[in-house]
Amino acid sequence: MLETLVSDTLLDPLAAARAHQKAGGRVVGYVGAEIPVELIIAANAMPLQLSGLILTDFKEADRYLEDRFAPSVRAVAEQYLRGRLDFLDAIILPRSDDSAQRLYYYLCELCRSKIVDGPTPLIYDLAKIPRDSSLTYTEQATRKLAQTIGCEELALPKAIALRNRRRDLLAAANLARIRRNNVQGSFIDRLFRAADLCEAIPFDTALSDWLERNQREEAIPGPRVLLTGSAPPDERLHRAVESAGGNVVAEFGDFASCSAQLPAIPEEGSFTALAQHYHSLTHGSRAFINRAKETVARAQSSQVDGVIQWLIEQEEALVWDVPAQKSALAAAGIPTLSMVRRCWDASDGTIDEIISFTKSLGDRK
Fold first, then answer.
1. Which of 13, 110, 126, 223 could form an SS bridge with 305, CB 3.0 to 4.6 Å?
2. pTM to 2 decimals?
């Protein structure tokens, strides 16, 4: 059952990866939605998404990292410094994320200085500028990363096909939530966070079976909400909406539901096609998109009753789009709760504000 698999995985996020390594397999960790996971699969290794590791104690990380690092990246550093990731072959960090890029340099120096002896830190030097020279640079970076982790181009088609299946399944789960509103947003958030902590085939099979069963469920009543901005450490914001009788039917921003994004990659497989896909993704703080326009479009296509905009104190990029997003949502007549520079664990009254806002949406219906 998918529900049991998700729950067990999130209770011990590293269990499946440790078992894979203990059985003689390779495991490569990565951070964020902009790492070409297909390269890891084609290198005959298990990909392990590290962005969702949840910690509340950053004792080791605080010895080396400034407080401006994103908490999700700080959690990766904490696990690394405690030796909990030593079973990994390597960790891949994206240049397209400020905190992750800085962590790469810090880990390299800590390893060079022999302060820590962990898995090799690697950088995926992804460029996002929408021009040919940027795409060429990204392809070179893709080939370099492939060579470093032992991925040959001939192995890409099978890996791309496997990852495309994941894209289709996750898109179907999101679509069911939006169109039929028959599953709680908190479960979808847990589903996406668990997806890349599991072995691919067992997870995809369980998700496919769940989608078949989910066809017959009734819609959830109450206000429909779009959640935008920073990704919370778990489903606590989704549950706050649900406790007030609503449901988060979509997200936009730095959320797990943005992972394994469509469109599918051509399955004939090439480093060029892979580079084109990740270069053009609209995910991430360095994506060249009109976030105000995209936010309104997502709200309208998801038929939401209101939008919750939540950004943590450490967010240094997406915050610049807040005024334009608020203006665009107001012009579209979409009620919005905007919370900026908030505590990453929502311990500053965020939950109460979300509950109150969601209840106000219910009063409008």
1. 223
2. 0.94
